């Protein structure tokens, strides 16, 4: 299969925080890959903007190094890299003062899309937005891209929305949640809304429960200072896991259109019931044999921040009445494995007298790694001797099904940046969506802060704290094994 690459309109993309970690790891290598794929037109340009006093040449060297480090070797083409670097300029800019803005203004061209990526601390959003306007750099068609964390609670998220709204309309603001840029996450919508097979069963009548797991093996070493103020709830649940839950639980939108999709997601977030403390388990990883634990990595000996969380969540609407959604995510777990598993109810009447007694269908959508889908179905155990049943997978690996095309799939950032240039907001969070997510998250966090709850220790390389197992056992259910 040959992948189809449709070039986007010519653009000037300014990356504030152009020398930062995200720019080096994701944004610049991602843009290079899109260039290589032929998606960037000849006259598109990238302008790095940061405090450091660098020449264009020095910034290009930095971009070249980022490509060498973060782009797979087989995609590093000397000539393409040189051509790509030719499209890059740099401005040293003072986000809170006046230095550099006139130069940036002079670099911007008419008749191309102007996009501004705010890869900086949220405290600078207001200053940058204001100066873009003051210096006539942004126009009514310009787009701005902002990163998570978008606030740390409802009040701060509202304040950020208000600061941006002073100078930009909602249609100009692209709030990134990189999970929405993942191929398999979008596949959730394709599976649900382009197949007649699943949707009729997609409701409380037929679904027993849903499990959403985002397990990571990495620790927070190196980013402990940020993480300790955040924790798994703010870092993963309020955004990425909430988006996954929305895509599973939302009603079919009338069209795959930005506001139609986001309206439906918003309804799900608003329908989330408050979560009671006994339906939450928080964990913190212990030290391992050769490695420090969370406490050492966060450098806060008294830290009560969770590096793991499991929750039982209910969506309070007609479709999902009584269907629990079990969510869990954590660092330093047994394997890097993210999946969504939808367990269907038993058939209403058992005609087989097999000893097992359970006849369970499970649809597993593997988000990463080994992206694919697995439908567990019951069949007859082979051989004579009566009707014994067994569960087997109808297994589809996207890599096998799609061949080379699966390898060429753009990474989340590449896709999302191209969507910004195309002016397509479907995979970005709307302001009201982010606020609704915080409105649900805030009381949960406030609750454990008020009670002084401490997370439970768990061993690195395990499946998380013991109590998390109990969260499901109490309901007569069990977590799926965490494995790659
Ligand atoms: C980020 C979180 O948003 O997502 C990190 O801040 C987390 O803590 C990361 O590790 C996970 O992303 P991915 O794409 O590796 O699943």
Protein described:
The structure is a single chain. The chain has 484 residues and is α/β, with parallel strands linked by helices. It is built from 16 helices and 15 strands. It has helices spanning 21-36, 56-70, 78-85, 101-107, 125-134, 154-165, 183-193, 224-228, 231-249, 258-271, 294-298, 398-402, 404-407, 412-422, 431-451, 466-473, and strands spanning 11-16, 45-50, 88-92, 113-118, 143-146, 173-175, 207-215, 280-285, 308-314, 324-330, 337-344, 362-368, 372-380, 389-397, 456-458. The protein has a nine-stranded mixed sheet, with helices on both faces. Strand 5, helix 6 and strand 6 form a beta-alpha-beta unit. Helix 9 packs across helix 15. The radius of gyration is 24 Å and the shape is globular. The relative contact order is 0.14. The mean pLDDT is 93. The site of 6-O-phosphono-beta-D-glucopyranose has 2 residues, from loops.
Please describe the structure with a list of short key phrases separated by commas or semicolons.
single chain; 484 residues; alpha/beta; nine-stranded mixed beta sheet; globular; binds 6-O-phosphono-beta-D-glucopyranose
Short description:
The protein has 484 residues and is of the alpha/beta class. The protein is 35% helix and 20% strand. The radius of gyration is 24 Å and the shape is globular.
How many distinct helices? 16
Mean pLDDT: 93
Shape: globular
Query: Helix fraction?
Result: 25-40%
Approximately how much beta-strand content do the residues carry?
15-25%
Instruction: Strand order, main sheet: write it out.
Output: 14-13-12-11-7-10-9-8-15
For the report, how would you describe the main beta sheet?
9 strands, mixed
Ligand inventory reads: 6-O-phosphono-beta-D-glucopyranose
Q: What is the C-alpha radius of gyration, as a whole number of Å?
A: 24 Å
Q: Runs with pLDDT <50, length 5+? A: none
Helix-and-strand structural type? alpha/beta
Instruction: Please provide the count of β strands.
Output: 15
Straight-line distance between termini: 27 Å
Q: What's the assembly state of these chains?
A: single chain
């Amino acid at each position: 299969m040959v992948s189809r690459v449709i070039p986007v309109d010519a653009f000037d993309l300014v990356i504030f925080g152009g020398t930062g970690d995200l720019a080096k790891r994701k944004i610049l290598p991602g843009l290079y890959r899109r260039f290589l794929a032929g998606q960037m037109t000849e006259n598109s340009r990238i302008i790095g903007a940061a405090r450091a006093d660098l020449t264009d040449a020095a910034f290009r060297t930095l971009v070249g190094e980022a490509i060498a480090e973060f782009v797979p070797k087989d995609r590093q083409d000397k000539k393409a890299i040189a051509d790509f670097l030719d499209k890059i300029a740099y401005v040293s800019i003072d986000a809170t003062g006046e230095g550099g803005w006139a130069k940036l203004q002079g670099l911007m061209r008419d008749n191309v899309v102007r996009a501004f990526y705010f890869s900086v601390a949220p405290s600078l959003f207001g200053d940058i937005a204001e100066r873009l306007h003051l210096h006539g750099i942004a126009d009514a068609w310009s787009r701005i891209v902002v990163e998570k964390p978008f606030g740390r609670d409802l009040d701060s998220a509202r304040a950020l929305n208000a600061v941006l709204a002073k100078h930009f309309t909602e249609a100009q603001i692209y709030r990134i949640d990189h999970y929405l840029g993942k191929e398999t996450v979008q596949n959730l919508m394709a599976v649900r809304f382009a197949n007649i097979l699943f949707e009729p069963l997609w409701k409380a009548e037929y679904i027993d429960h849903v499990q959403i797991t985002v397990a990571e093996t990495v620790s927070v070493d190196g980013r402990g200072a940020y993480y300790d103020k955040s924790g798994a709830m703010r870092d993963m649940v309020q955004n990425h896991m909430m988006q996954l839950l929305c895509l599973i639980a939302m009603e079919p939108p009338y069209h795959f259109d930005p506001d139609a999709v986001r309206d439906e997601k918003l309804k799900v977030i608003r329908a989330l019931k408050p979560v009671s403390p006994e339906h939450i388990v928080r964990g913190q990883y212990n030290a391992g044999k050769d490695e420090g634990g969370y406490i050492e990595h966060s450098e806060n000996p008294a830290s009560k921040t969770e590096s793991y969380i499991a929750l039982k969540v209910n969506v309070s609407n007609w479709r999902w009445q009584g269907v629990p959604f079990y969510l869990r995510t954590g660092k330093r777990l047994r394997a890097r494995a993210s999946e969504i598993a939808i367990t269907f109810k038993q058939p209403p009447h058992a005609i087989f007298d097999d000893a097992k007694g359970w006849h369970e269908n499970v649809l597993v959508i593997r988000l990463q790694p080994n992206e694919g889908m697995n439908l567990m179905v019951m069949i007859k155990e082979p051989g004579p001797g009566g009707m014994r049943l067994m569960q087997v997978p109808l297994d589809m690996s996207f890599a096998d099904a799609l061949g080379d095309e699966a390898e060429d799939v753009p990474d989340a950032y590449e896709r999302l940046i191209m969507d910004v240039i195309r002016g397509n907001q479907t995979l970005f969070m709307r302001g009201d969506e982010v606020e609704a997510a915080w409105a649900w998250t805030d009381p949960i966090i406030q609750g454990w802060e008020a009670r002084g709850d401490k997370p439970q220790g768990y061993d690195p390389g395990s499946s998380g704290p013991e109590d998390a197992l109990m969260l499901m056992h109490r309901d007569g259910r069990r977590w799926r094994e965490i494995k790659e």
